[in-house]
Structures are given as structure tokens and as C-alpha cells.
Automatic annotation (TrEMBL):
This is Uncharacterized protein. InterPro entries: DUF6913. It comes from the Bacteria.
Length: 164
């Protein structure tokens, strides 16, 4: 059944609805109240959370999610969280109802479901590491020159602050 869901999600990504969202090109870091992280693992979410709180302040609410087909963790999502025709189920609907000010997208191994989740949150300002597939979805991208996620995220936040 995964391949059916993947087929529909892939077709949605290939033929995106033309929805023009009014997004500010610049995001004032002083106005950030909530951040959503889409990462590769729970450990990566914790590392990014530490960097965010040390660089932007502890008062920022940080939510994190990662793709894992076998995990039962509350932060994990998988193809099972989509209907047969690629629509988000209850768990993801609740996540999508929260509109973060900033999305940090860091997965190195991409799949259609993480890209689709990023596309569904297109009204939020998003940043991450450059990849050809993520180019249409991210507002600020850096080459992933850093060896670890901690220093890479710190660089993303540094450049976000500099463009303000």
C-alpha cells in the first residue's frame, strides 16, 4: 500500500497547485515565536532545538518531526499518516493546523512524504540545506559544507540574522 500512497503524493508534488502565498522575503528574527523542524531523526531534532534556543532565545516554541516508518514515537511520521490518495490523516492535520513562523528542513535522504509535508506548510518561511529537490520549497538555502548538523544549523541561523 505504500507504493499507492507514494504514487499519489509524487503526482501532487509534480503538479503543484498554483497557490501564490504572500511571504516576506525577509524574516525578522525578533518576531519568531514558533519553529517547526523537519529532520532525519529524533536526535537531530534535539541538536537543532539546542542551537535554536542558544542562538534565538529560550522563549521560542520548537516542534519537531521526522520520517520513520517503524517508530511509534509521537514526533515520527510515515506513509501511514497519509490516506491511500495522499491526503494527510489526523496526526498530520493537527501538525499542519499549527502555522510556525519558521521551518528548518534538514533531512539528507529525501522522500516524497517529507517533501509533501514541507509543501503543505508553504505559508511559513523555510530554510535548510541546498538540494535540487528542495529548491522550490525553501526560502533560504545553504550548501551543506558543515560536517555536523549543529554547526550547519548555527550557520543557517547566522545568515538568517544577517539578512534582517
Amino acid at each position: 500500500m505504500k507504493w499507492i500512497r507514494e504514487y499519489y503524493v509524487k503526482s501532487i508534488l509534480e503538479n503543484p497547485k498554483k497557490k501564490l502565498t504572500q511571504k516576506s522575503i525577509l524574516l525578522n528574527t525578533a518576531n519568531i515565536k514558533t519553529i517547526s523542524i523537519i529532520a532525519s531523526s529524533k536526535e537531530e531534532i534535539e541538536v537543532i532545538k539546542e542551537v535554536v534556543h542558544s542562538d534565538l532565545g529560550n522563549e521560542i516554541t520548537v516542534m519537531g518531526n521526522y520520517y520513520d516508518e517503524k517508530s511509534v514515537d509521537e514526533q515520527a511520521f510515515s506513509y501511514k499518516d497519509f490516506t491511500l490518495f495522499g491526503k494527510p490523516r489526523e496526526k498530520l492535520i493537527q501538525l499542519l493546523s499549527l502555522t510556525p513562523d519558521l521551518i528548518i528542513f534538514t533531512p539528507e535522504r529525501l522522500n516524497y512524504f517529507t517533501l509533501f509535508l514541507l509543501q503543505l506548510q508553504s505559508t511559513s518561511y523555510s530554510m535548510g540545506f541546498y538540494n535540487k529537490e528542495t529548491e522550490p520549497y525553501l526560502d533560504l538555502m545553504l550548501n551543506n559544507e558543515e560536517k555536523d548538523i549543529q554547526s550547519g544549523t548555527a550557520l543557517l541561523i547566522k545568515y538568517l540574522k544577517q539578512i534582517n
